[in-house]
Amino acid sequence: MRLTTAQALVRWLLAQRTELPDGAEGPLFPGVFAIFGHGNVLGLGNALEEVRDRLPVWRGQNEQGMALAAVGIGKATHRRQVGVATSSIGPGALNMVTAAGVAHANRLPLLLLPGDTFTSRAPDPVLQQVEHFGDPTTTVNDSFRAVSRYFDRITRPEQLLNTLPHAARVLTDPADCGPVVLALPQDVQAESFDFPESLFATVVHRPTRPRPDTRALTQAAETVRAARKPLLILGGGVRYSRAAGRAIRFAEQHAIPIAETTAGRTLVPHDHPLHAGPLGITGSTSANALAAEADVVLAVGTRLQDFTTASWTVFAPDVRIVSLNAARYDAVKHGALSVVADADEGLRELTDELGDWQADRTWAARAVEERAKWDAHVDGLRAPTDMPTYAQVVGVVNELSTPEDYVMTASGGLPGELIGGWRAVGEATMDVEYGFSCMGYELAGAWGAAIARPDGVVTTLLGDGSYLMLNSELFSAAFAGHGFVAVVCDNDGYAVIHRLQTGQGGAGFNNLYDDVRTAHARPPRTDFAAHAASMGCATFPVDDLEGLRDAYGKAREVAKTEHRPAVIVIRTHPDAWTEAGAWWEIGVPEVAHRPQITAAHDDVATGKVKQIRYL
């Protein structure tokens, strides 16, 4: 088939199918987010226009925002579908690098198609080209290499025959999943080639389920069987394997308490008797208490990030870790006994290996005892006060949510509130982007999630700082007709970083507006409701929790019936937080102009004594 490079790429996108979480078949690439410029409007733009009735194209307002929306699709579909984003060369391409970082850190699929300069170099230097004096092959798209699982620059049309199968491999591989970047020089996009029809044959991608090595499995079973106080930790890999049911049955059969990581939140029903709660700094005192006593930790589908492990102080010094993970890179971390396998298959075979073995029932009972204490603590935090707090806002949204709904956040103080305080109402219904903690993902990712999850209500919670950093995709979603609810908690600046700053002996500086340099006696304030309304959103400014409760009910209805974002704005307390009592290692100066800072440095040194290191 005589096609241009761009036409062939688009036809290949259409030919890729996937097995969706509910078992049905659907498109692997459900749509493309695009901002056109001279680097992609004629080649890829014309190719997309030819198939616009079969491959939806959504116009973004900011390349970072639309690429983050594409990331949101990957997370909302449990990595079964892949968002695509394309930009022109230069600044448009570089704007997408942050989104690639989000996908890379969170092991999420994302296909980026940035335009690139001419391979012929005949018109060089072209508009938006950055020239490297010693290497003419380098363009700004090489910036993607640090945040890509797979990077290629297509300099000949026929190179697609080699690279597209690898792109699909990375996007659908549970062990290697992450962003794929195919840089597309604008002259090559327009070149034609006689492509074999086989390139466009329909392919249905189904999740691979590697089974564990039998020797590793036997060793893992022996380790677990020797435990007196085992703890099962569920991470994002359990979610992407759709193995939550298997994990819960495993825990029930063997009487093992369960804790969840950030990416594993809402896998376990909140009131399950084995549910100890979320683990780590932003987790719960209940899960952390069990982790401190556990002699064996079975970590499934998690990379054990520092917020989960409290910088490796949450576990007992002599704990043994068994890591079951599809990615060998993650399975071998921190001296763990590694079992490389799909979460569902690995737990199934480990159950068979353990037989009728059970942990001490008194240990299992600790989960419900400790979680009851944590629940009582959260209930206290949710009780009304003079000024609404994050915990109270989360409580209202939580109480009014249904099993089909989906809740999101990404940065600032709200991740701690959702991870620690949310009570699951549906399986795998939370997206806390805390791998990269990207301010701005809250709104852009919600647009992608709303596209991917049309049946329930997507609710995103964010602070005023995140809103101001990236809000343009509110207009994109309103224009396209994708409804979701955004709850904007206005606490006068970057409150959680102010907390970190002052909590380690520093003076309040450049975070809360009271500490930010200004020439005005009374500096301006943002009217978030008016701003959101100007971009086509329904808006609900509220003053208290009762107003929030009423507004959230109305906002849900608007999102579903009017197909546009509904933005709730509420002033919240800048100093009230949900605390799990765990330690976190941060870089406090050893020498400083404030004695409070050097004292905090001494506290860090004391905390590091507890740190577990596996060499």
From TrEMBL:
Record CDD domains: TPP_PYR_POX_like
Statement: the UniProt record of this protein carries the keyword Hydrolase: yes
Single Gene Ontology MF annotation: magnesium ion binding
List this protein's GO terms for biological process.
Answer: inositol catabolic process; isoleucine biosynthetic process; L-valine biosynthetic process
The EC number(s) given in the record are 3.7.1.22
Q: Where is the Thiamine pyrophosphate enzyme N-terminal TPP-binding domain?
A: 40-128
Supply one GO CC term from the record: acetolactate synthase complex
UniProt KW keywords:
Hydrolase, Thiamine pyrophosphate
What does the sequence similarity comment in the record state about its family?
Answer: Belongs to the TPP enzyme family.
In Swiss-Prot or TrEMBL terms, this protein is called: 3D-(3,5/4)-trihydroxycyclohexane-1,2-dione acylhydrolase (Decyclizing)
Species per Swiss-Prot/TrEMBL record: Saccharothrix ecbatanensis
